[in-house]
Amino acid sequence: MTAGSRSARIQGLVAEEAAGRGARVSVLDVCAAAVAALPIGGAGVSAMSRSSASHPLCSTDTVSERLEELQLTLGEGPCVDAFTRGSAVLTPDLRADDVHVRWPAFAPAAELAGAGAVFAFPLQIGAISPGVLDMYAIAPGGLDTEDLADAMAFADTATLILLGTGTGGPDHGGLADLGGNRAEIDQATGMLTEQLGVGLEEAFIRLRAHAYAQGRRLADVAADVVARRLRFPPDPDQTDNDT
Amino acid sequence: MDQQLLSKTFVELADNLVADFDLIDFLRLLTDRCVGILDVSAAGVLLADREGVLRVMAASSEQVRLLELFQLQNDEGPCLESFRTGRTVSVPDLRTEAARWPRFVTQAHQRGFAAVQAHPMRLRNEVVGALNLFRSTPGPFDPVDAPIAQAMADVATISLLQQRSTDRSNLLNEQLQNALNSRVLIEQAKGKLAERLNTDMETAFTALRGYARAHNRRLSDVARAFIDGTEPLTGLVL
């Protein structure tokens, strides 16, 4: 198998959706492409945060929209668990007893809304976790291993879009640049939080923005930061606040 | 082979496979112990992600981590071969393999390695990764060590399965996802700490791990808390 073939294929599907809409690629395109590629009825993305209120960003249909709303209103459900645990939460049968024990309010409401199975995938890069990708199927049933791997690749694509700096072409700081040997990218992101005095999410966006603006590969810029050949000066207004 | 040290090591590894253990921390411990009990100077663990793409999950030193990365980038070398064939690949003298892996052999030599032995990490019918052992001097690997090295590779595989999961059929897929994300999280924390203390990544990692051990906490939990700014790492030892 060639490196990143799945990611490349999934990103291609998402890009096609955006092209079909004639719009810039967004998380909505991830949801639409996932619905077309996987045995699911609908999908949605919610922005989540530990410190502020969560909110739905998009959904492909009314059932998905309802599921996103329910979880954020009730404060329980697969999407909430996926976010707090940082791992996929797969519920192939919403009717199961243990599901009703775990989510006494969400489970019956989700069934009433028309869902038979729900799958939630955290959007995350290490400690950066901007939200969750939710999928539902009308009939109960699990995702097979291939579908699950695709679903996770859709979640990775959604993560990068949410953290996006412009559309970011595939070659320069864009979507295709994260796979393979990425320890330096993660280390550089951590270093920039200190250099810039910002959070991890912003540090990552700034790193990508720099690569994009300079027309360089993200991995190369990251390697320069780690080798301390490149420093990011703190924002002028940040400095003003300090003095 | 020191039998007492050997049994002590396996007991220690088993002790570390407790509920909710930290996979990255565990694999790093395993590579360190390989260096302790086997006649090798460095060890590394490669794991395949859900696309079958190998990633460096643990390495006993920065030199070996870079060499493993180099292998992955150039798509050649004994560890990749072990992963692809599912067999142990033993190279007692890398100089004899310059034609087969020209870039790898040069790079290994530059980093001070002269011999390599790679053991597949096998789970039922699937090869999920490889445990790679490196020596600084050429010469045959002691055949007595081979089953022990393979046992270490098997323990590394078991540790993947020990991590908890919600859906059995998709166990490995999720395990690897979690492991990869926790690896990313630790790299982010290493970067932040290295910048703050003006040290290299290896020093930052050792300090972070030492702190987690001293406070009896999971490495990835300490890493996350440090990134979130809720963990000042008071009393951190460099």
Write structural notes for this entry.
Chain B: Keywords: Kinase, Transcription, Transcription regulation, Transferase. Chain B: This is GAF and ANTAR domain-containing protein. The complex is a heterodimer of chains A (about 240) and B (about 240). Chain A is built from 11 helices and 5 strands. The longest helix of chain A is centred in the middle third of the chain and has 18 residues, at about 145-160. Chain A is an alpha+beta fold and about 240 residues long. Chain A folds into 2 domains: about 5-160, GAF domain (Beta-Lactamase), CATH 3.30.450.40; about 175-240, no CATH class. Helices cover about 50% and strands about 15% of the residues of chain A. In chain A, helix 2 (about 25-35) runs antiparallel to helix 7 (about 145-160) and helix 8 packs across helix 9 (about 200-215). Chain A is globular. Residues about 165-175 and about 240-243 of chain A have low confidence and may be disordered. Chain A has a 5-stranded antiparallel beta sheet with strand order 2-1-5-4-3, with helices on both faces. Chain B has about 240 residues and is of the alpha+beta class. Chain B has 2 domains: about 5-160, Beta-Lactamase; about 165-240, Winged helix-like DNA-binding domain superfamily/Winged helix DNA-binding domain (Arc Repressor Mutant, subunit A, Orthogonal Bundle). Chain B has 9 helices and 5 strands. Chain B has a 5-stranded antiparallel beta sheet, sandwiched between helices. In chain B, strand 4 and strand 5 form a beta hairpin. Chain B is globular.
Roughly what percent helix of chain B? 40-55%
CATH superfamily of the largest domain in chain A: GAF domain
- Major sheet summary line of chain A: 5 strands, antiparallel
Mind telling me the C-alpha Rg of chain B?
Answer: 18 Å
Total tally of structural domains of chain B: 2
What CATH first level of the largest domain in chain B would be assigned?
Alpha Beta
Determine the strand fraction of chain A and express it as a percent band: 5-15%
Strand arrangement, major sheet of chain A: 2-1-5-4-3
**Alpha carbon gap, first and last residue of chain B:** 33 Å
Mean pLDDT of chain B: 88
In CATH, the architecture of the largest domain in chain B is: 2-Layer Sandwich
Number of strands of chain B: 5
Strand order, main sheet of chain B: write it out. 2-1-5-4-3
Q: What level of helicity do the residues of chain A show?
A: 40-55%
Q: pLDDT average of chain A, as an integer?
A: 86
**What is the helix tally of chain B?**
9
Order of helices and strands of chain B: HHEEHHEHEEHHHH
**What is the overall silhouette of chain A?**
globular
Q: What's the structural domain tally of chain A?
A: 2
Annotation, overall tally of beta strands of chain A: 5
